[in-house]
UniProtKB/TrEMBL annotation, chain A:
SMART domains attached to this UniProt entry: DSRM, RIBOc
Keywords carried by this UniProt record: Mitochondrion, Ribonucleoprotein, Ribosomal protein, RNA-binding
Lineage: Eukaryota, Fungi, Dikarya, Ascomycota, Pezizomycotina
Span of the signal peptide: none
The protein, known as: Large ribosomal subunit protein mL44
Automatic annotation (TrEMBL), chain B:
Keyword Mitochondrion applies: yes
Compartments where located: Mitochondrion
Key words, A-Z: Mitochondrion, Ribonucleoprotein, Ribosomal protein
Domain of life: Eukaryota
Descriptive protein name: Large ribosomal subunit protein mL43
UniProt similarity note: Belongs to the mitochondrion-specific ribosomal protein mL43 family.
Classification via InterPro entries: Ribosomal_mL43 (IPR039927), Ribosomal_mL43/mS25/NADH_DH (IPR007741), Thioredoxin-like_sf (IPR036249)
Coiled-coil regions, chain positions: none
Record SUPFAM superfamilies: Thioredoxin-like (SSF52833)
Ribosomal protein/NADH dehydrogenase domain segment(s): 32-105
UniProtKB/TrEMBL annotation, chain C:
UniProt protein name: Large ribosomal subunit protein mL50
InterPro entries associated with the record: Ribosomal_m50
Family in the record: Belongs to the mitochondrion-specific ribosomal protein mL50 family.
Organism: Aspergillus lucknowensis
Keyword check for Ribosomal protein: yes
Pfam families found in the cross-reference section: Ribosomal_L50
Keywords in alphabetical order: Mitochondrion, Ribonucleoprotein, Ribosomal protein
Region of interest called Disordered, as start-end residue ranges on this chain: 242-268
Subcellular location(s) of the protein: Mitochondrion
Segments of skewed composition (Acidic residues): 250-259
Taxonomic classification: Eukaryota, Fungi, Dikarya, Ascomycota, Pezizomycotina
C-alpha cells in the first residue's frame, strides 16, 4: 500500500461532511438546511481545506434554530470547542488530523445513527488496526505462548475494559445526552437506562454454527475461526433494516462507547496522518501500558502438562527433587523443590507441602518455556516502511501441549 | 482445558509512552469592578495568551464572577478539582498559582515517605534462606 | 567665603527654629535643606585644615603640596557657584584655577554689583522686593501676558474631519512645495476662509511617485489653480516677495493683514469644523510618502494644528506615509473597552488559541447542564410533571 492511495481513500471515507441522508431535521427544516454553507454533498480532496474555513464562518443564526434538533453537534462547532482542542493537544495527535474528525470520533452510533456522522466506520478500521498490531506484537515477542494466553493478552491490551480505562485517563468526559447543543469535546452516546441487566439475555446471532447446542465442546482452535480477537463470540452482521439509518439505535454502555472512541481515533489517525503516525500512537498509548504476561496463566495440572511437553520436545522425563526443606515436622514446613530433566533444572518452586512445591516448580518450568522471547523482535508490519529489509519468517512455536 | 488465560487489564504508566497532563481544565474567574481582581485582570490581559499557548492541552475558560474574589479552579483527570483564591495577588504571583495548579496531579496532598514506587519486579531478587551455601553446625 | 556659607546655613536653621511652630508640616519639609546639600556644606565647613590636607602636607614636607587641593571630588556645587562670584577674596587659590575660570568669571563679574562684605539683614528695609505683594493686578498687561494657542483648542474625533484635515494639509503642503516656500509657514494661517477651503477641498492628489509632493496635485480647473497659487504666494512669503515688484510687496502686506484677520477669526469659537464638510472627496493623499523629515515635520505640525491630535515619539518615528497617520488616529479614536471580557474577545492573540474560551457572562449551573446535554432532559421531565409550562 502506498501512502498516496491511503490519502485518497481517506478523503472518500471522510467526505460525508454534509448531512445528505433523509433525516428527520431535514424534513423539518428543509428550507433552512439548504442555506447551509456545508451542504456540498461529496467534496473532493481539494475541497477539504476550503470547507473547513467555511465551516468556521458558518451561518450561526440557522444553527441556533436547529441545534436542539440535531442528533449530534454540527461540524462547525468543532472549531469553537476549547475542550476538543485541548483533547487534541493532550493526546499528541498529529496536526493533520483536523478537529472536525476528532469531533466525529466522539460521536457514537447510538447518538447519531447516520453513518456519515458517527464513528462506526472509523472504529471498524481502528479496531482492525489495533488487533493487527497487538497480535503481531504478542506473537512475535512470545512465540511459544498458548492460544488462550494470547487471547487473554490481546484482551488485556485492547479489550473493552482497557479502552474504557484509557478514555478515562485521557480525561474525556461523557455527555449526559447527545444533541446538537452539546459541546463536541464530550463523548456522546445514548446511555442504557439505569437498572438494566446487561448480561441477562443470552448471546444470539453469532457467526458460529450450531450456537444453540450449548453442550457441544468448543475447542480453542475453533475460536480462531469463529470468534473475535479476544476469543469472544462475534455477532453476525444484521441486514440493515433501514438504509437511511434513521432507525433508533439501541443504547450502549459507557464502556462500549469508550471502546468505539479509541478505535475511531486510531482509524482517524491512520487515515489522516498515515501508517507511521498510527503506529506511533499505538506504541505511545497502548503498547506502553504495563502487563505482566506471567500472571495470565491458569494451569490446572501443571505437572502433567510439563511431562507432556517434555515428551513432545524429546527431553528426558522431568523429575522433581527436593532442593532444601525446613520444619518438616512442624506446623509450617517449607519445601523447595526443583524439577529436573536429566541434568538441567527446568524450574523451582517453594511450597508448604511437597505436592504444592512440585506443582509450583512445574508451573515455573512451563512459564519458562512458554514465555521465551527472542532477543531481536521484528514484527511483520515493520516491513511496510519504505526502506525496510525484506521479511524473514520468525519462529512461532506449536503453542500449548495437547493433553 | 488444561490451561486457561486470565483476563486482566493493562496498567497505565503515564509518561512511559505518552505523557498526559493531569490538569485538564483551568477556570479563571474575575470581577470587573472589585479591586481584589486587579492583578487577575492584568494577568488575563497580558500573561494569559502566553500561558495558554504554552499549555495547549489544558482547556482554559475565562468567565466573570461579579462581586466575588478572583479564583483559579483546576479540574483534573481523576475527577477532583482544586481552587485557589488569588485576591489581591500580583500577576506574577497568579502565574505561579496557575503553574501550581497545572503541575498538580489532582490528588489530595500527602506526605511522600517513599519517593520512588514501581510496579516492576526487583532486579536483585529477594534473599532466600533455603538457597546458597548451607552450613551445618 | 567659608564663613559666609556657614552663616547662611546657620541662618536657615535659625529661621526654621524660630518658625517651627507656625509652619505647616508640608512647608516645613520643603523648607528644610535637602540632606545632600547639607553634607556638602559640612565637608568643607570648618576653617581648620582637614585631616587629608594635613596628611598630604606631612607627606610632601611642605605647607604647599602640589596636586589637587581636595582629591575627594573637589568642592560642592554651591561652593563653586559662590567662588565664581567671589573670585577676588580667594588670593590663596593657585594661579591655574583662576586662569582656567578666567573668561567666565570676567563675564559674570560685569553683571554683578560691586563686591561688598556680607552683612545679614535684620529688617526687610532695603531688601530687593520679589513678587507683586498683592498689586500685580494693577500692573498693565505686558506682551508676554497674551496667549495665542497654536492649535484650535478642540480635538477632532470624527474620522471624516480627520481625513478632511489630512487632505487639506496635503494640498497645502503640495502647494508650498510647488512654490518652494518654507513648509511650516503654512501654520501661520490657522484657518482658511470658506471659499479658499472649498478650492482646497476640490483639489485632488494623485501621487505619481512616492517622493514627489510638488507634482502630485491635480486641480479641477485652471481658475482654481490660479487662485490657489495666488493665495499661497502670499502666505509666509514676505521676504521672498520683497525683491519682486512693488505690487507684489503690497500684496504681501495685504496678505499679512488678512493673516492677522484670519488669526482673529480663528480665536472666535468655531461652531462647525470645516464649514460643515463631512469627509474628504479624494483618497489619493493617503499614499503620499512622509519619508522626507522636513515634509514629515511640516505635515504633522500642520495636521496637529488642524485636528488637535498629537503624536507620541515612537509613533512619530514609525510613520512613513499619510495613510499611517490616519491609521494611528483611527486606533486612537477607537474607544477602549471597559469590560475585561470585551478586551479579551477583541484580543487576537487569545482568540487565535483554540484551547481558550472566553465567556462574557457569568457561567451558571444551567450553562453546564446545557453543555452536557442535560438541560433538555430536565426540561422535558419538568414539563411532563406539569411543573413548567
Amino acid at each position: 500500500m502506498k501512502r498516496l492511495q491511503l490519502q485518497r481513500w481517506s478523503s472518500s471515507v471522510l467526505s460525508s461532511r454534509a448531512r445528505t441522508g433523509g433525516r428527520l431535521q431535514r424534513h423539518l427544516y428543509s428550507s433552512n438546511r439548504f442555506q447551509s454553507t456545508a451542504s456540498n454533498p461529496l467534496p473532493s480532496e481539494s475541497d477539504l481545506a476550503g470547507e473547513q474555513s467555511t465551516a468556521s464562518s458558518g451561518s450561526t443564526p440557522f444553527l441556533k434554530f436547529t441545534k436542539r434538533q440535531l442528533p449530534s453537534p454540527p461540524v462547525q462547532a468543532a472549531r469553537e470547542s476549547a475542550k476538543l482542542a485541548a483533547l487534541h493537544a493532550r493526546l499528541y495527535l498529529p496536526s493533520r488530523l483536523p478537529l472536525e474528525t476528532l469531533a466525529r470520533c466522539l460521536v457514537d452510533a447510538s447518538a447519531d445513527p447516520d453513518p456519515q456522522f458517527n464513528n462506526t466506520s472509523l472504529a471498524l478500521l481502528g479496531n482492525d488496526l489495533l488487533s493487527n498490531y497487538i497480535s503481531e506484537h504478542i506473537v512475535c515477542t512470545y512465540p511459544r505462548l498458548p492460544l488462550t494466553v494470547i487471547f487473554a493478552a490481546v484482551y488485556a491490551y485492547i479489550g473493552p475494559k482497557t479502552l474504557a480505562a484509557m478514555v478515562r485517563e485521557w480525561g474525556v468526559e461523557h455527555a449526559a445526552f447527545p444533541g446538537g447543543e452539546v459541546d463536541p469535546g464530550l463523548l456522546q452516546f445514548k446511555r442504557v437506562a439505569p437498572g438494566t441487566d446487561i448480561s441477562a439475555e443470552p448471546i444470539r446471532g453469532t457467526t458460529r454454527p450450531n450456537e444453540d447446542q450449548t453442550t457441544w465442546r468448543r475447542s480453542i482452535t475453533s475460536s480462531v475461526v469463529y470468534d473475535n480477537e479476544y476469543g469472544d463470540p462475534v455477532m453476525a452482521p444484521k441486514p440493515p433494516a433501514d438504509p437511511s439509518g434513521s432507525s433508533p439505535q439501541p443504547p450502549v454502555t459507557a464502556e462500549q462507547a469508550s471502546c468505539s472512541l479509541v478505535r475511531a481515533v486510531m482509524g482517524a489517525i491512520y487515515l489522516h496522518a498515515g501508517r507511521l503516525a498510527a503506529k506511533r500512537f499505538f506504541e505511545q498509548h497502548i503498547l506502553s501500558r504495563h502487563l505482566n504476561l506471567s500472571e495470565l496463566f491458569n494451569f490446572s495440572q501443571p505437572v502433567r502438562d510439563l511431562a507432556r511437553l517434555c515428551a513432545r520436545e524429546n527431553y528426558e522425563q522431568p523429575v522433581a527433587k527436593i532442593i532444601s526443606e525446613t520444619g518438616r515436622k512442624s506446623r509450617h514446613p517449607v519445601f523447595v523443590v526443583g524439577i529436573y530433566s536429566g541434568k538441567d533444572k527446568l524450574g523451582e518452586g517453594v511450597g508448604g507441602s511437597l505436592v504444592e512445591a512440585r506443582s509450583r516448580a512445574a508451573v515455573a518450568a512451563l512459564k519458562g518455556w512458554y514465555l521465551y522471547s527472542p532477543l531481536e523482535v521484528r514484527v511483520p508490519s515493520s516491513t511496510e516502511e519504505p526502506g525496510a529489509a525484506p521479511w524473514k519468517p520468525v519462529y512461532v512455536d506449536l503453542g500449548e501441549v495437547i493433553v | 482445558m488444561p490451561l486457561k488465560g486470565i483476563r486482566t487489564v493493562t496498567a497505565a504508566r503515564n509518561g512511559v509512552g505518552a505523557f498526559i497532563l493531569q490538569c485538564k481544565r483551568l477556570d479563571f474567574h474575575y470581577c470587573d469592578w472589585a479591586g481584589s481582581s486587579r492583578g487577575m485582570v492584568s494577568f488575563l490581559k497580558h500573561s494569559l495568551p502566553a500561558f495558554a499557548k504554552e499549555n495547549p492541552q489544558i482547556e482554559i475558560r475565562v468567565s466573570p464572577r461579579p462581586h466575588k474574589h478572583p479564583v483559579i479552579k483546576g479540574h483534573y483527570i481523576n475527577g477532583r478539582e482544586k481552587a485557589v483564591c488569588v485576591r489581591n495577588l500580583e500577576p506574577e504571583q497568579i502565574l505561579q498559582k496557575a503553574n501550581l495548579l497545572k503541575e498538580a496531579s489532582g490528588e489530595k496532598l500527602k506526605r511522600t515517605k517513599k519517593p520512588v514506587t514501581s510496579i516492576n519486579e526487583s532486579v536483585r531478587g529477594i534473599w532466600s534462606p533455603y538457597h546458597g551455601d548451607l552450613r551445618t553446625i | 567665603m567659608r564663613t559666609s556659607l556657614r552663616q547662611v546655613n546657620l541662618d536657615v536653621i535659625r529661621l526654621q527654629g524660630s518658625r517651627f511652630l507656625y509652619v505647616c508640616s508640608v512647608c516645613r519639609q520643603e523648607a528644610r535643606p535637602r540632606p545632600f546639600v547639607a553634607r556638602q556644606f559640612l565637608r568643607n565647613a570648618s576653617d581648620a585644615t582637614p585631616i587629608t590636607e594635613r596628611v598630604r602636607r606631612k607627606l610632601w614636607g611642605t605647607d604647599n603640596p602640589p596636586g589637587l587641593k581636595d582629591p575627594y571630588g573637589g568642592e560642592g556645587v554651591f561652593e563653586k557657584k559662590f567662588k565664581r562670584g567671589q573670585s577676588a577674596p580667594q588670593e590663596d587659590e593657585s594661579a591655574e584655577v583662576t586662569r582656567a575660570a578666567g573668561t567666565e568669571n570676567a563675564v559674570v563679574e560685569d553683571a554683578l554689583p560691586e563686591e561688598t562684605p556680607y552683612e545679614p539683614a535684620t529688617t526687610w528695609e532695603g531688601l530687593q522686593r520679589v513678587g507683586h505683594l498683592g498689586r500685580w493686578s494693577d500692573l498693565p498687561p505686558s506682551e508676554a501676558d497674551a496667549y495665542n494657542s497654536f492649535s484650535s483648542n478642540r480635538r477632532l474625533t470624527k474620522l471624516g474631519h480627520v481625513s478632511l484635515a489630512a487632505h487639506q494639509t496635503a494640498v497645502e503642503l503640495c502647494l508650498m512645495h510647488l512654490l518652494k516656500k518654507p513648509l511650516t509657514s503654512i501654520c501661520d494661517v490657522a484657518e482658511h476662509e470658506k471659499p479658499v477651503f472649498k478650492l482646497i477641498w476640490n483639489c485632488k492628489i494623485q501621487p505619481k511617485s512616492n517622493t514627489e509632493w510638488d507634482s502630485a496635485l491635480v486641480y479641477p480647473d485652471k481658475e482654481t489653480e490660479d487662485a490657489l497659487i495666488y493665495i499661497f504666494e502670499q502666505i509666509g512669503g514676505a521676504q521672498q516677495a520683497a525683491p519682486e515688484a512693488n505690487a507684489a510687496a503690497e500684496d504681501a502686506e495685504a496678505a499679512e493683514l488678512e493673516d492677522t484677520q484670519d488669526r482673529d477669526s480663528a480665536q472666535e469659537p468655531r461652531s462647525i469644523p470645516f464649514f460643515g464638510y463631512k469627509y474628504a472627496k479624494d483618497r489619493g493623499f493617503l499614499a503620499l510618502s512622509l519619508n522626507d523629515p522636513v515634509t514629515k515635520f511640516a505635515f504633522l505640525k500642520r495636521f496637529s494644528q488642524l485636528t488637535g491630535q498629537y503624536f507620541p515619539d515612537p509613533i512619530l518615528h514609525s510613520i512613513s506615509s499619510v495613510g499611517q497617520v490616519i491609521d494611528h488616529i483611527k486606533t486612537e479614536l477607537k474607544p477602549k473597552p471597559k469590560k475585561l471580557a470585551d478586551h479579551l474577545v477583541g484580543d487576537d492573540s487569545l482568540q487565535s488559541l483554540p484551547n481558550v474560551k472566553v465567556f462574557v457572562k457569568k457561567q451558571k449551573p444551567w450553562h453546564k447542564d446545557e453543555e452536557l446535554g442535560r438541560k433538555k432532559l430536565i426540561d422535558a421531565e419538568l414539563r411532563e410533571r406539569g411543573l413548567v409550562e
